[in-house]
Amino acid sequence: MEARIADQQPGHCCTLIYTSGTTGDPKAVMISHDNVIWTTRSNMTHHPEFLTGPLRVVSYLPLSHIAAQVWEGVKAAL
Known about the structure:
4 helices
């Protein structure tokens, strides 16, 4: 695991998010490691209740959605 963490670089792919294809062919969008880390840290900074709790969140988003993935990252950081 340490080797995988050490191999992560800014700009490298962290996850792919796919469009539904409702207006054309489905497409994938690459989300980089630095993008996910920045977004997660920003959420934790601007919403301190994530850290101080108690906070309950009900998400209707599937884990294939970037917002759900970032929320899982915030929870994992706690």
